[in-house]
Specification:
The protein has 540 residues and is of the alpha/beta class. The chain has 20 helices and 15 strands. It has helices spanning 13-19, 22-54, 66-70, 96-103, 122-136, 181-199, 214-231, 247-250, 253-259, 271-281, 301-316, 335-355, 368-378, 396-399, 410-428, 443-458, 471-481, 485-488, 494-507, 517-528, and strands spanning 5-7, 88-92, 109-113, 142-144, 147-149, 157-161, 168-174, 177-180, 205-208, 239-244, 264-269, 321-326, 359-362, 434-436, 439-441. α4 links the parallel β2 (88-92) and β3 (109-113). α1 (13-19) crosses α5 (122-136), α5 runs parallel beside α6 and α15 (410-428) crosses α17. The protein is globular. The chain starts with a strand and ends in a 12-residue tail after the last helix.
Length: 540
């Protein structure tokens, strides 16, 4: 074992034995010791920024980087091998069956997710790394239930999403401090697979989530440079697409691209997390109260403005402007309902491709054909970098526009409570991606439901019927809906539902909602994995 490095869990021992070589742990330790202090200072800066927003300081484009935004001369790196055409990208967790099915789906790329669609049990994290290592080497084939799972001759290009900067990896400490979940996920994949990927004509490609400032992008870029030098790989081999899924990041898209320009492969509209961030960052602003979740669509003012600005920004800098997720999944037992759902998918993808997006996200292999057809018909080349959207003029007020038509309804409140309970229960049980009401839900949806319920209670919002949204109302709904959660989310246990119920009731009572439910509830996973409870502070 490498000096100063401790593994605090014995789960998934085979994967640990194969991944945690001394050389790999030396790399993890080097990254941690070099960059952890910077990560912590950037997380502190997020808290400082939130205090300013709470005091009434409005978000705006940073004045100190006006020169970067105005300069026409700089561009990002050209597309890396396999990333020239990204018209359909499928996403999902890293379990073995999912990895094979996604790589074989016919989508152009597969975003293998260690973040919002994975519950970060240690088994999920390290087995996921092993699955990706095997996929890179085309040694992932297996048999289950009499069915063969084998990689096709031409699988999708692999892109990996590590966890966000806010999450620790408590099962691994270096010098008695937990390593960053971001660095852990990135480093293991990069160290074990980068040279194999290049040998196969691809490269180490990543999606970077949850950033709130261009200095956080600079940290990633520094890590990329360090890592490539560490293993003797030419600089600028790595490519990274940044999810613009926080409100502050929408004001810094140019700067984020600039910081990563030699490693950048574009930006993505992380639509669900963006709504979550819009509410959370404006928690002290009564005017930012939003209606039912279903009414906050991509065509409402603040969402449409952010999309148009993202496309314009990316194409000005010659990188991909990726569209968002279609969470719909096929409805097998109701033909008419399935037609309605698939029509929504087509309309969403048509909106994206005609706006100028270079590709889109799907959550289910059977949606690939629909998304692919829409993009094939409307995007004849590999991308739309030539669509410069010079017509777009987006001001700060457009990104902050709270004019969202819609109402707060009893159905909307009930659906939020039910979704929050079901997803949180599943997450605690180790499942980060569940089908609910024919939508594939991940942590982002649960975060929206949580902060919406908090917002409605905090500001005394009223339903369209006139009924106020009170603590007592939420408590009664939790009590009514909790017994049915095990049917909605098979596999969850009573104790998971109990924790989810208590957590939601505690959240709506707080002065401010927690930053992330995943941070709050991570101790439950860590303790279940064998980490000493004395070193874990649970949210409840």
């Amino acid at each position: 074992m490498v000096k100063g490095v401790q593994i605090h869990s014995k789960v998934a021992q085979q994967a640990q034995n194969e991944l945690f070589t001394d050389d790999a742990l030396d790399f993890l330790a080097a990254l941690h010791r070099t960059f952890e202090a910077t990560r912590q200072s950037l997380l502190s800066a997020r808290e400082d920024a939130q205090r300013k927003f709470d005091s009434g300081v409005s978000l705006d484009f940073p004045p100190e980087t006006a020169g970067i935004r105005a300069a026409p001369s700089w561009h990002c790196a050209p597309p890396a091998p396999g990333l020239e055409d990204r018209r359909v990208e499928i996403t999902g967790p890293t379990d073995r069956k999912m990895v094979i099915n996604a790589l074989n789906s016919g989508a152009k790329t597969f975003m293998a997710d260690f973040e919002d669609s994975s519950a970060p049990t240690f088994a999920n994290m390290v087995n996921g790394q092993l699955n990706l290592r095997d996929a890179v080497r085309r040694k992932i084939d297996f048999e289950a239930g009499g069915k063969q799972y084998k990689l096709s001759a031409n699988p999708a290009v692999l892109i990996v999403r590590p966890r966000g900067w806010h999450l620790d990896e408590p099962r691994v400490t270096i010098d008695n401090t937990p390593i960053s979940g971001s660095i852990f996920d990135f480093a293991l994949f990069f160290y074990h697979n980068s040279k194999e990927l290049v040998k196969a004509g691809r490269g180490p490609y990543f999606y970077l989530p949850k950033m709130e400032h261009y200095l956080e992008a600079r940290l990633w870029n520094d890590i990329f440079l360090f890592s490539q030098s560490y293993i003797g790989m030419p600089h600028n081999t790595i490519r990274a697409t940044v999810l613009i899924e926080t409100l502050p990041a929408a004001f810094q898209m140019e700067e984020i691209l600039f910081e990563l320009r030699n490693h950048s492969s574009g930006l993505n509209c992380g639509r669900w997390d963006y709504i979550f961030s819009f509410i959370k960052k404006r928690r002290a602003d009564r005017s930012a109260v939003l209606p039912d979740r279903k009414d906050v669509t991509m065509t409402v003012g603040f969402m449409d403005s952010y999309v148009r600005l993202l496309i314009q920004t990316c194409h000005r800098r010659k990188v991909a402007a990726m569209g968002g997720m279609s969470a719909q999944i096929p409805i097998k037992d109701d033909h008419k309902a399935n037609e309605v759902a698939m029509a929504k998918v087509r309309a969403d993808k048509l909106r994206e491709v005609t706006a100028g997006h270079d590709g889109t996200w799907i959550a289910h292999p059977l949606i690939n054909q629909i998304a692919r057809q829409v993009f094939d018909e409307n995007m004849l080349g590999p991308n739309q970098y030539h669509v410069l959207r010079q017509d777009v003029k987006v001001a700060a007020t457009d990104l902050l526009n709270t004019n969202v038509p819609g109402k707060i309804t009893e159905h909307g409140v009930r659906e939020n409570v039910e979704t929050s309970l079901a997803y949180t229960s599943a997450w605690i049980g180790g499942n980060g991606c569940i089908p609910l009401n024919y939508l594939m839900e991940d942590a982002a949806t649960a975060e929206i439901t949580r902060v919406q319920l908090w917002q409605w209670v905090h500001y005394g919002a009223r339903l369209d019927s006139g009924r106020p949204v009170t603590l007592e109302y939420i408590d009664a709904l939790v009590k009514e809906l909790a017994p049915g959660i095990k049917k909605l989310a098979p596999g969850v246990k009573d104790e998971h539902v109990q924790v989810a119920a208590e957590y939601l009731k505690a959240q709506v009572r707080k002065q401010w909602p927690s930053e992330f439910l995943t941070s709050d509830l991570m101790p439950y996973l860590a303790i279940a994995d064998g980490v000493d409870p004395a070193f874990q502070k649970a949210a409840l």
